[in-house]
Amino acid sequence: MAWEHLDVNRPHLVYIILGGFTSLFMLCSSVIKERLYIGEATVATICGIIFGPHAANLIDPGTWGNTDQITLEFSRIVLVVQCFAVGVELPKSYMERHWRSVTFLLIPVMTFGWLITSLFIWWMVPTLNWLDSLCVAACVTATDPVLASSVVGKGKFAKRVPKHLRDLLSAESGCNDGMAFPFIYLAVYLLRYRPDSNKVALHWFCYTILYECIFGAIYGVCVGYAARRAIRLAHEKELIDRESFLVFYFVLALFCAGSGSILGMDDLLIGFACGVGFSNDGWFLEKTEEAHVSNVIDLLINLAFFVYFGTIIPWAQYNQMDLLGLSAWRLVVIGILVLFFRRIPIMLALKPIIPDIKTWREALFAGHFGPIGVGALFVAILARAELETESTTPLAELPPEGFEHLNVIELIWPITTFLVIVSIIVHGSSIAVFTLGKHINTLTLTMSYTQANEEGPTWMDRLPRIQSRSKSSMSMRRPDDTDNSSIDEKDDLRYPPGALPPIGMPGNFLRRQREEDNPSRSSSRGPQARRRKNWDSGRGPGGPISQSAITPQARNRDHSDVLDSSRSDSDTLAIKNDESPESNSEKPPPGSQEPEAEIYQEGNETVYEDEEGNVLEVEDSHGAEEPERQQHELEEAKKLVAEKDVHEGVSRTEHEHPEEDMGEKVVKEAKQAGHDVKDATEHPGKHWRH
User: GO cellular component terms (predicted)?
Assistant: First the structure.
């Protein structure tokens, strides 16, 4: 007999199972995700199946009320939050610069996938006609941002995929869930208004395309822009605290979901457009880059949803040949055909005209990677609701016998859920297939230099300019240092006063003053008094402070400035291998720029990227030996980053001074640096650039 104080009910079981599973998963999440290559969606779905009504029967959503309504609203929140997060995490002005690639993936790729999937379903399910199959196929046309986030979002997996490809697939997954509305409503209107083509065209074009999608996207961008201005103003006026600042994006996504649903618009597209408008300038992403709040919220709601999905899988309907015309082998064949022919052929065909698809292997991976998940479940329930009630509210029970479109209403849910299960299994381990099928060398080349400060002295005012030879070290040099002194004198002739030779030159080491190390050899005055006098006269431990160290002059960076080894700014070459867990790179000081180039080996082709994911060059490396190829990749990456940096610097300088030509800039900046004008014009980039 149970203890009378035990109060066991269904909600309490849900709490303990969900909390216990999440705790255990998080304790070993690194092993599961980074060593076994299993995504959280797969593990959460298995948990839901184990504790669901078909196994332990501890969680049964069928007893909670209208299961379709619960599923619809739960998936709506998950999708809007995820679509908004994708829009926020895209690079600055991404949609403006890469709209062509995204458009190709949204219109021709989705249309081809919709039509080819409908043919497979029509062929394998004898109880459906082609129009019914179009309605079912529209549910699995869009790619899912929730499943896509594990491979193309943030994390260790994502680093194995080239950034330009990650950004493209992220933008597609965030946008095409909303773009699934035209496909699903075209199929619904064909079923509802056939053969009246005028009504179909009116409702589909005016209501769905113009109002729900286009006006919805404009509304989302306006909401995002207004929210961005509001939060920047609140941040500048110190009206918002850090916690509210970090969670602002989540509550804004909830607002998009509610307002979009009330206005009858495409709330998924509103969420993505709002995220793009909210973070298009990159300010919010820069402020929250280290917080990872979005990842935490996404992880929690995604785990909860897939546990819920595991409990509502209709296992009994997968083998009802007499009632529904479905059998397990037919569903397996549909799943295989969809995986191989839904996206891969059209991606390979469009590879030459999609700007962000650089190699055939990238086209193959982009075609393979089309996960079907939460978005498909949302659209399937929405289609059932439109066919049942001609609204977005589904019925709690299936319609009675003889109801129009009953056949497609009964079949749309089991077919969609089975394809979601197939996608969770296959696409959840896509990164393992990708890693085993293609070895990627990821190298990051960083060139750091101090930016000119045009607003006056900063933290560098307190630092001495360290030279290769100071006055005190000249007077205290021992006889055996004559060779080194000759080297130093030569270096001083080659480099102007106050400038440092490049890193790696012989003799370029920091020498401590000997009077500090050996007080007995100091003068009669104490070291404290002497150091005080040196500081007062502008000389620190390393010699006199150069004016360029206090207030560096503006630099006009051309090609000779970046590649000339005699400049005062140093180039630091840091090579990191993303495969290794350790990195020797240090955080750069304030005021430094770090253009990065990532190198990916795509079969016989080498892809060079900058830090924003823009492809600098694609080069054929067939037949090259491994050491020679790696050395060539480093040199090529350095050259590409330098050329890009030069181009941006020259463009920025010309934009700031459009009335001056290059010669006038040289003379003007040489005068500012206090150097000879004639010498500066004859040797631009050497003496007057500090």
Answer: plasma membrane
